[in-house]
TrEMBL record, chains A, B:
Keyword line: DNA-binding, Transcription, Transcription regulation
Domain of life from the UniProt record: Bacteria
Sequence ranges assigned to domain HTH merR-type in this UniProt record: 1-71
Protein name (record): MerR family transcriptional regulator
Species the sequence originates in: Swaminathania salitolerans
UniProt xrefs under SUPFAM superfamilies: Putative DNA-binding domain
One function term, GO molecular function aspect: DNA-binding transcription factor activity
DNA sequence: CCTTGAAGCTCTAGTGGCTAGAGATTGTAG
DNA sequence: CTACAATCTCTAGCCACTAGAGCTTCAAGG
């Protein structure tokens, strides 16, 4: 079984230019080519690309995915390192959530305190100007 | 009062190249220059740059900040549009939080179910390969 | 076998919000 | 007047793609 880049795209939901990009950054191996230099892929690449897509959907960056792929090929190895990467990523997400929740609270607070009057007396603008609520 | 770009940077906490960048994208007006073509800023720019910095810290993108700056200059105007921009931004943040919370849950779930054995039987790797938990 | 048109190819440039560096010039304190 | 920090412009790099130009190849129908 040997499929074109378009067919690979259809089967994985990854766009054609993105597949070529992944090849360029080394997430996908250099594929076989036809005589006319068109790429031809096999089942392994479908699985690998699906793996990449799911990892991207879960927010992993390319460097992490490269490592996860390498690890996933060493079937006998302990999965401690995999867990460590994922754990690090979860902590990363936690920090981002915290930050966003704090931002949201500050924005909502300035909205709540807005008297719906003119710009001159607008709480929101004031907060932006001073960086905090002056009471 | 007329200060250099370095002094402006010190007073606002915005780095020198970033100030030049903001000028380039039209967040800061073209400043006065010395005979030797070095930039000189006044109090207005300090205030404006502080405004920009706070807005960036609150996660607004440059396009939004441009609009907020324009609005903030029209002191008589109703602040409805300002509120609308901020409200949109809050909703944006809400969506990002939701997504991150969902991601976090999925990652944590796969970690919890990991038997700490080999890669071969690793839950985390399986989830990435299939895109969901096969029971 | 030949034509046609979709799909493929490579290469470059753009996105956002900066950051880093090269290499030249200017400001200012001693 | 000298020394040197600061500033100048310009280009390129970051991440993970995306878009487009201009060309070639593949596959199906006649």
């Amino acid at each position: 079984m040997s499929i074109s880049i378009g067919e690979l795209a259809r089967r994985t939901g990854v766009k054609v230019p993105t597949i070529r990009y992944y090849e360029g950054v080394g997430l996908l191996p250099t594929p076989a080519r036809t005589e006319g230099r068109q790429r031809r892929f096999g089942v392994d690449e479908v699985a690998r690309l699906n793996f990449i897509r799911h990892a991207r959907e879960l927010g992993f960056e390319v460097a992490d995915i490269r490592e996860l792929l390498t690890l996933s090929e060493q079937r006998e190895r302990s999965c401690a390192e995999v867990d460590a990467i994922v754990h690090r990523h979860v902590e990363n997400i936690d920090r981002r959530i915290e930050k966003l929740v704090a931002l949201r609270a500050e924005l909502q607070r300035s909205l709540d305190r807005c008297a719906r009057g003119t710009i001159e007396e607008c709480r929101v603008i004031k907060v932006l100007g001073y960086g905090y609520d002056r009471v």
